[in-house]
Task: structure prediction
Amino acid sequence: MTERRGSGGGGFDVTLPTSNRAVFCHCHAGSDRECMDSITFRSDTVLSDVHMYTPNIRHLMVRLNTVGQPVFVSKFKILRNIHVCSKDDIGDLSNEENRVLVDVENASTDQVGCSNTVANEKKVDDKKETAPTKILLDDDGDLDVIRRPSDFLNSCDTNLWREKVNPIIISKGEEFPFEEYDEDWSICNEIRIEHTMGTTLEDVGKQVWRGAFLLADYILNNSYLFRGCTVLELGGGTGLTSIVMATVAETIFCTDVGEDLMNMCERNIIVNKHIYGKAGSEIKVRELDWLRDELCTDPENPYCWSEEEIAHLYDHTNVLLAADVFYDDNLTDAFFQTIYRILSNLKNPSTIYLSVEKRLNFTLRKMDVTCDAYDHFRLCLADLENINDGKTKFIVEPIKLIFPQFLFYERVEQLELWKIIAEPLICNTQQ
Result:
């Protein structure tokens, strides 16, 4: 089965991995039955698995978007004090001494962060180590599963159970004020992202993917690399990586295509101002179509570029980012053509950071497990490194994933991080 994909205006035929398909049925929620009946589910829906590994994170359904997809708001806690990434605090968190200082600071405060979480997990682990392992079997030798007591949900220990979810269903496509469902905006280390959990392939930018978390981890661990930079993110999606980058960088252009997606991204950026506000950074959501040679300057487009912004982009950008956007060969080609075109116009040497997840899929065409999208990505990397245009030299190298996690997700072995250094060649024209 194929699906039409058009990130950036075009469409191509791509095979949707069977392992990523999810079949949904219509669901109802009490008095909101009529509204829920209008939800659009399809059998070829692509489902992100990020939320599956956050059992203590509340996913609050708040509305339906313009195409009938349920929209959720999820809370992702940064596991260490976010303020260490501001311009006046500790620089390189990859340094062990700095990480110890941060942990001590967190342990001495009442903020919700990594220290308390890790401490609680360690207590549980200690109990597991000291408690004898006993397998309970019934009379027939089958495993006897102990059920939770009926009063478990009323336990005062909130760490033992997930938060109760009371969905707020708003009519299709309607905007909503965040304050209606939020309890406390004062938590400074908690990112709240509006997103979907299942979309067609053409709307996967509305979901949260592990590659964005991996890139965010790298930024938080190496904040000194990005202080005061002008950054361009391509395929920014929900804006999570740009929000984290804004804790250290000066200006971030978060780009994508599709008005519905970009509206969602802009709302996320506005509502997370508490994360990056103290750094004095600015995030601008702008359209960047990989299938077009020029930036959008149409004033009727709410996400068009002004002449001043285009000049700033080319005069000051020195970091480019992209998180998990390499799942279709045509889009991957368009991406590398776009960054080559942009780099050719930049005045400063630049570094590109790319996260990718190597997805293994069984295809009937080859009757084998393959990772065609990843293989094509690697070919594009090699082609970029082999470019000999006399203008720019590209150095491609993988980044070892030896830095700690700041965000809670499953860092699977298929996740990779790549760095591309673009060095302008200086030609000596003097006789």
